């Protein structure tokens, strides 16, 4: 293992301080793999660190039963290499986790990426050495390296929340977490299982666990809207038609706000401009089509409460139609926030699961969980006996993974201090005082509200253009200016206020993590507008950034 000391300050022929690497990439998920590929393609010496023992990021860790994507895999896949997108065959419309992981392993092999990835290695610190304009990076394995650039491909949903109830150590059964699911299959046969959390992860695994377990208790704090996933084997004719002209599909995605609606393009109409009959037919058509296309039915659904009321009422009615016991149905129907303001889920038989005799729904808002006991959970006045307890309680989304690393920029200022009141960045890409440290699909960018694979490709390409620009113009560093950061924060907040997102308690605003500042995290102006801004900033010499 090469472990140079930080004081090694030999110089390269171009006069720049010599570093172990040109760039460090943190994370080997979709973003990190592509970043590593692009850096190497232009001849830069790069090293990627990945905490997992394999590639995949989110798709490496979240192996729970039923884990699957809710964007069509022909779209939720890399677009950068035509041969890759032609040769890979998806077996279903929405790939399940094992298939996405196989795909990412294939990508790693195909582009020979593994030789520059250190697996099982977590980056713990990244300190900026101002004198040498280099990042000093340390890992939990004691590796210490320097690099001119850091690409933080750390993911938006990669820092799972801790178990927030006392007593976990006393539990005599097995505790599982959807975000750290074991590699070996878990057999629930004959067991009494409890699951806390009814977001996308819970909603995907609950139906499958219910089929196997002797009994399943679902502990629900807030009901979620979920639409039928409509997953099915890949239609060969559809696959053929996409592959015959993949470029057109990618062009549509890149020129759209969400990057997922190649087939069912978002409507350009407003919900209240059409008759109730037309609206009903449109909602029904999209409901039957399955997937997240449903919430693209009309352009104003997430900005106009009256428009939103129409889709909320439709989705509420669908839940009531599926669940036989009216009391259980009422618990499952979200009533106090607009449809889509919390992340929409997609399921296969979720609501129907509550018609099973071996499934019980417990409303933990009415009867809070007090503690984990040796044999189960104490909830309200009741002790519920369990053999297995699963936590599907979500993530410290969008900021958690970055803030878990001890990052220090100019003047030893910590990243955590800089983002104390919420994330500050120019375009979500860089922060003031943290030169040459790039963030992919982070807060302040469309991020989780755009097709993440294409969003990551876009950011990596932007970063690569930026690095090329620095070298062409003889700059050592680039970073956001304080002023641009404040302006961008105002822009993101202002656009956020024009939407209905603030009307729900969600991880989009950090509400799910106790003590986290309430700030709208993703940029809600749509990818098209965001991309135009980023492209124009790059084309005009990086205003809002300081180049030295
Ligand atoms: O996490 P979540 P997730 N006590 O935060 C509850 C993506 N994803 O892992 O709403 C009791 O959505 C919490 O309740 P509340 C997708 O972007 C995608 O399911 O905070 N309950 C909620 O019910 C998704 O949004 C896919 O009141 C507690 C649940 O736990 C994101 O990942 C699949 C609690 C957490 O839901 C996160 O999804 C999976 C507590 N202390 C994930 N803390 C697909 O592509 C939290 N909860 C389909």
Describe, in plain words, how this protein is organized in 3D.
It is a single chain. With 548 residues, this protein is of the alpha/beta class. The chain is built from 16 helices and 20 strands. It has helices spanning 30-41, 58-61, 82-87, 97-110, 200-212, 236-244, 246-254, 276-289, 305-322, 326-332, 350-353, 400-403, 415-418, 452-472, 482-497, 527-539; strands at residues 21-26, 46-49, 117-118, 123-129, 134-139, 144-152, 174-177, 192-196, 215-220, 226-228, 345-347, 359-363, 369-373, 376-379, 382-385, 388-391, 406-408, 437-439, 478-480, 545-547. Strands 1, 2, 3, 4, 5, 6, 17 and 18 form an 8-stranded mixed sheet that branches. It has a 5-stranded parallel sheet with strand order 7-16-8-9-12, covered by helices on one side. It has a 3-stranded antiparallel sheet with strand order 13-14-15, with no helix packed on it. Helix 5 (200-212) links the parallel strand 8 and strand 9 (215-220). Helix 14 runs parallel beside helix 16 (527-539). The longest helix has 21 residues, at 452-472. It is globular, with a radius of gyration of 24 Å. Mean pLDDT is 95; it is low at 1-11. Bound molecules: 3-acetylpyridine adenine dinucleotide. Residues 69-70, 157, 164, 178, 196-202, 204, 221-222, 343, 346, 364, 392-395, 448, 507, 512 line the site of 3-acetylpyridine adenine dinucleotide.
């Amino acid at each position: 293992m090469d472990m140079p000391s930080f004081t090694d300050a030999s110089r390269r022929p171009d006069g720049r301080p010599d570093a172990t690497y040109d760039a460090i990439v943190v994370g080997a998920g979709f973003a990190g793999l592509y970043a590593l590929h692009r850096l190497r393609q232009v001849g830069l010496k790069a090293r990627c660190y990945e905490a997992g023992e394999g590639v995949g990021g989110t798709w490496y860790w979240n192996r729970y039963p039923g884990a699957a994507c809710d964007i069509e895999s022909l779209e939720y896949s890399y677009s950068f290499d035509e041969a890759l997108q032609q040769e890979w065959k998806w077996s279903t419309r929405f790939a399940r986790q094992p298939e996405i992981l196989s795909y990412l392993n294939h990508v790693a092999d195909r582009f020979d990426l593994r030789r520059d990835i250190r697996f099982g290695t977590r980056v713990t610190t990244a300190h900026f050495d101002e004198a040498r304009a280099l990042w000093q990076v340390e890992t939990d394995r004691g590796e210490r390296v320097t690099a001119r650039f850091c690409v933080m491909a750390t993911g938006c949903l990669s820092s799972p929340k801790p178990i927030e109830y006392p007593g976990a150590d006393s539990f005599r059964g097995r505790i599982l977490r959807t975000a750290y699911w074991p590699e070996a299959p878990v057999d629930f046969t004959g067991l009494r299982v409890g699951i806390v959390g009814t977001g996308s992860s819970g909603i995907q695994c609950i139906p499958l666990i219910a089929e196997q377990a002797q009994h399943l208790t679902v502990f629900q704090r807030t009901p979620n809207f979920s639409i039928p996933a409509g997953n099915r084997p890949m239609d060969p004719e559809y696959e053929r038609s996409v592959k015959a002209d993949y470029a057109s599909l990618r062009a549509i995605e890149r020129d759209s706000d969400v990057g997922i609606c190649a087939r069912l393009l978002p409507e350009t109409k407003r919900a209240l401009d059409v008759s109730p009959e037309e609206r009903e037919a449109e909602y029904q058509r999209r409901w039957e089509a399955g997937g997240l296309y449903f919430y693209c039915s009309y352009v104003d659904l997430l900005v106009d409460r009256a428009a939103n009321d129409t889709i909320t009422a439709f989705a509420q009615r669908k839940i009531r139609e599926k669940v036989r016991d009216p009391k259980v149905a009422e618990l499952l129907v979200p009533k106090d926030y607009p449809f889509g303001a919390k992340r929409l889920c997609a399921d296969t038989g979720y609501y129907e699961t509550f018609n099973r005799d071996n499934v019980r729904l417990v409303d933990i808002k009415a009867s809070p969980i007090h503690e984990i006991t040796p044999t189960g959970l104490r909830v309200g006045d009741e002790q519920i006996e369990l053999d297995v307890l699963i936590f599907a309680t979500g993530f410290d989304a969008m900021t958690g993974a970055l803030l878990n690393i001890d990052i220090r920029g100019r003047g030893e200022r910590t990243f955590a201090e800089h983002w104390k009141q919420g994330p500050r960045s120019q375009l979500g890409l860089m922060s003031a005082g943290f030169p040459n440290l790039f963030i992919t699909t982070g807060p302040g960018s469309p991020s989780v509200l755009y097709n993440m694979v294409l969003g990551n490709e876009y950011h990596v390409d932007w970063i690569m253009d930026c690095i090329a620009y620095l070298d062409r113009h003889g700059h050592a560093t680039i970073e956001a200016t304080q002023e641009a950061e404040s302006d961008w924060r105002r822009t993101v907040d202002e656009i956020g206020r024009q939407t209905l997102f603030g009307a729900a308690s969600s991880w989009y605003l950090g509400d799910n993590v106790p003590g986290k500042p309430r700030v709208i995290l993703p940029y809600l102006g749509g990818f098209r507008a965001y991309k135009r801004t980023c492209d124009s900033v790059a084309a005009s010499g990086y205003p809002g950034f300081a180049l030295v």
